[in-house]
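Example A, followed by Example B.
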Amino acid sequence: MNNAAFWRAVLERLDAGTPLFVALVVANTRGSPGTLGARLLVDADGNTLGTIGGGIMEANLVRAARDGLRAGMDAPPSLEQLEHRDKPGTAHPSGLICAGEQTNLNCWLQPGRDAATIRAFCAARDADGGEASTLQIDAGGLRVTRAHGAGMALSRDSERWCWRESSVNPERLAIVGGGHCGKALARLAADVGYRVEVFDTRAEALEGDADWPVEVRRHLLADYADLPERLHWPELTTVAVMTAAMTQDVEALTALADVNLHWLGVMGSAAKIHEIRQRLAAHGIAQERMAAIHGPIGLPMKSDTPPEIAVSIMAQLLAERRDSHRPRV
């Protein structure tokens, strides 16, 4: 589940009058099962959504949260540092022995106090344009402020700490082409936390709400030349070009060649990519711009069906995301 869907689920429960416990992983070291940005929701019935690492650590937390909610527990947000090791002298054992450490931010949320704040943050995430909003959580509670930028981070000193989470998701994927492979890639990318937008010039390719995750935005274009003006935060955006025809691939790549993108790639065989580069050169695209176009995209593995192709592409994008060290949100 991506973070936008998580906060919407929190808001739905708060609007229904349900107090909640939410834990966010706000720091971690190598080896920790809970990674930065992981999150967990618990209600008084012990129902959960998300994860902060699993195992006995999570089971203990869910049990304590459930019991606390049933007892009417309400407390300021707090940090909890956990060490995943079973050694003498471990100050804050988590019950796990997989190595590493993580810091959880524990929040007791009340409908009357916190729903408006979460609603404002969800609205900012849905808008996703212009000035960014930031959800700030500290010992004083939750609030939304106006800020520029993307990502998430914990700041702390000896006396104070603050978690900041931007409404702008820095993991962004624009899929150019809403065919079978585009649909399969959109599903995977949404599942791993990307903000996904799909662009096509064919209305029929974008139809069928049941075929698309609710988080995926679909855009009908009159022409692929319109792509640059339709991309918010292009410097954060990975673009995968996979249209219905090579001529359309060339149109899209030509339109995007001079845009400052995070990453640009095109799907196809080696022979097709060679021909695309020839045509881009004929369109006057500079050699250094063509060198920045990745293709064929996808890891070299057996991938013939749309789901298999989507897995190979998603694996490559995740490797690129890992190597970029950008914060997830």
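Example B, a separate protein, is given below in the same form.
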Amino acid sequence: MRAAIRARGVDRLISLTAVEVDKRLRLGALGKDFALRELPFNAVIVRAHVLYKIKADDRDTCRIAAMGDQLPPLPSADTFAAVVGEGPKVLAIAAMQAHCQFRAEVFLMSDADVVGGFLHIPLNSPVPMYLLLPDNLPHPLAGRYLLIQHAIYGLRESNRLFSLEMTRVITKVAGYVSTQGDSQLFVKADKVDPGYICIASVTVDDVLILTNSASMRQELLDALASRFGPLTINMESAMHAGVEFTRLPSGGVLLTQDRAIARAASVVGVSHLSPVALPGDGRLFFALVAEECVPVDSTVYSSLW
């Protein structure tokens, strides 16, 4: 909290926190707030932790999540994040690009983000669960216990519940089929002209849409918005899940992670070093001098993504 105040100031933190809490209340993810003495005897209390983040595009964000790792594991152990593999995703981009080239059509690449994805999914917990907000949270509800009604971020089962609903909307409502190569890569062909194809590549709550049909793209966006509300949409995607897309003059698509790598290098203090082709390149270990061999906390790297 102190680091966030130093970086952006108290007023900015108060504004960000209000937006985050209000979103959870508006979507019904959190319900009425209580004092400890008012909770039922069988209540399960989950502590919340708060992350303030300055994104790569300099946007400020606040994320309030449950510390679900402090709860006992689910009996079924059903928890996972639905993420399409990089191999199938790259193959889908290449295949769609070749298909559009063959038909002399424009290759459309778009990105849609479900805002507050997990917060739309009912939790249906067999026991009442309450989220304890930190005492020092810059918000009037600090220190209060809020009834958890939806699959908020941080609970063990939230990933699975959201994935099931996302898959249902894409397959049952929008009419897509999950591919054999990857369960989170979905495809649909137009019934009149099967040459019009739309591919949906899903990474948790981000959908990369690859198609040669603007109408099929819109139908998918409408199906998602009908279930989850307004989406964050980039009709001409330049980035998806940390991967950057650049259209080449030849018509090809270049995939890089230069911005993510540059930001990580800046945070851990290695931006001044010469780049290497691969992390295992022999020059990496022989180019360093003694003063550059500074121990770095490994948790810093995991906090960057």
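On Example B: The longest strand covers residues 44-54.
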